[in-house]
Amino acid sequence: MGLTLHIGFDFWGAGNLGDDLMLAGFQSWIETHLPEWSLSALCAHDIAAMRLRFPRIRWFPADPASRAEALRGANVWVGLGGGVFQIEVGTWILDQMLADMSAAKRHGLKTFLVGVGVNNRAALQTDQARHIHEVADALWLRDTACLEMALSCGFSAEKTRLGADTGHLFCAAAHIRPARPETALVIHARPSDLADAALLELHRRIRSGFSWVCQEVRPIPDSEFLLHSAGSPEFRRAFPLVLPDYPTASIAGLHSAVADWQRVLSSRFHTSLAAAWSGAALAVFERNDKLRAIREDLDCERCTRLDSADELARALGAARPVERRRLDACLARADRMMSDFISAL
User: Of 56, 121, 321, 329, which has the fewest CB atoms closer than 10 Å, so is most exposed?
Assistant: First the structure.
């Protein structure tokens, strides 16, 4: 009889399909290497969508009683993926993570952070992050930039290790359809970073079709959906919206929404990862430390401005598919991380 790994983060089902790619990669590795083991997870959002896409995972709501019930049935607590070291919206993400890890410890469970990321260095310098490091039995950061930031902020090299995003495990094996001969813009950014006039001029210069694609389907601040809604009628016609049907889509359908393009301009971590594995010509706008990290990992073209037609056209013209050796290195790190995590149990 195998162990039950409890995925203790509760952001699943919120509408960001990058989360689903991470979970799919983690689940596929466990099912391949340890088929007798089982997974449980919390969901604070659309639990029906998660049960539809991941029926082999036992899903719990995120209320206090369900959190406690999930811990009673688990052998290990796992914080899986995401840019969880962040304080752009306050410290509540760190507060909840620390509370969940501490509760797991009280139930006698080991706690691990697997393939997690750092959105900004300042989050690592909080008291919460210091306590999270103390409580964790081990943690794997998803790229070299995250690891270097963590070590420079006092995380110990003994328990803080280099890993990779588990989305690599799914995207590397995903079926790739022939790319649509269009350019996808997957842009999450401050409205002040964009200019309708620049994007419309880009559209006039580059004659191939464009689509405005949502990795995040909710109309939250700075999201693709709200940026598109705020654009002029001419802008919305030039860049038609692609909004995945998150509640009912399969994992393959969500993957296709961001990966199945000939060329991609992205300010999203998981769109960049998925597009790279699909062979798309890729340019990345570094809106924070995590986008800088994935761009450096992939060594793809950098777009420095979203409000300049000249820079947009230059970046897209210079965009090239990511070298396979870069992708293979990320995949090898992800596989090694998973093996190390299982050994640590």
Answer: 56
Pick from 54, 10, 13: nearest CA to 218: 13
Domains 4-170+329-344 and 177-322 alike in fold: yes
Closest CA to 231 of 260, 186, 200, 204: 200
**Count of all residues that appear for the chain in the document:** 345
Mean pLDDT of 188-215: 94
Three-state SS for 297?
Answer: helix
pLDDT reported for residue 1: 67
Helix (H, G, I), strand (E, B) or coil at 176: coil
Q: Using alpha carbons, select from 29, 2, 3 the residue that is nearest to residue 167.
A: 29
pLDDT of residue 179: 81
97 and 116 in contact (C-beta within 8 Å)? Answer: no
The superfamily CATH assigns to domain 4-170+329-344 is: Glycogen Phosphorylase B; (3.40.50.2000)
Alpha helices per DSSP H over the chain? 17-33, 47-53, 64-72, 92-106, 121-124, 127-135, 144-152, 167-171, 196-205, 224-229, 233-238, 251-259, 269-278, 289-298, 309-318, 324-344
List % helix, strand, coil for the chain (3-state, nearest 5): 45, 20, 35
Q: 177-322 in CATH: which number? A: 3.40.50.2000
User: How confident is the model over 52-79, as pLDDT tens digits?
Assistant: 999 999 999 999 999 999 999 999 999 9
Q: Where are the domains of the chain?
A: 4-170+329-344, 177-322
